Amino acid sequence: MIEAKDIIEGRKRDGKAKEGRSDDVEEILSDREIVGFQTELPLLERGYSDYPDEGELLRPSNNDIEKLANHGSIHDKEEIAAELNVDVGVVDKAAELHGIDLPTGGSFDVSVSRLDQLLGDELPEDMIDPQNPLFLSILYLEHGLSISEMADILAENFSTANIRSSEVRQTLVDTRVLKGKTSAEQEERHKQNRGEVNRTTNGGINISTSQF
């Protein structure tokens, strides 16, 4: 729920990311390496063709699971299993045999978009629209995203939309979340600069001569 203090804080940071936002938001927005057999570069110091099979992983001399458990790109046993292309049960059994503590940081499901991870079931589906100012305000004020992060994450979900950071900022300005000239104010200024013809109430016309 957006509170008055969120709006005040949002104006002060002027489009930057919120300091001290939740660890969950930081985790979702961070660039985490996608792990998995033949998905990226191998995490072990050899090619995928030289990776151990299930039998080799259970040998007392094998320490590959321990290496992966301590690797910075690995967050849980499911990712170890994915990297080795084996069942999670094999990882559990090998860890028990070798006395290895497996990480339990939670897996990173790349099939779920970052936007869906942020929102969950928080909003009705028809509200999730890059043109919806309330939706953008929630991302900025409640979740603490920066304008550039918002543009990136929206571009991932709405591939047909050409979303720019400047457009996101303008929407937040139009809703008075951020300071600046609203679209209506800018249009009025353009009209004045163009010296547009304006009809008067008595049927005559007024012509701005400021440009002559």
TrEMBL record:
Region (Disordered) residue spans: 1-24, 179-212
Skewed-composition ranges (Basic and acidic residues): 182-197
The protein's name: Uncharacterized protein
Compositional bias per record (Polar residues), positions renumbered to this chain: 198-212
Superkingdom of the organism of origin: Archaea
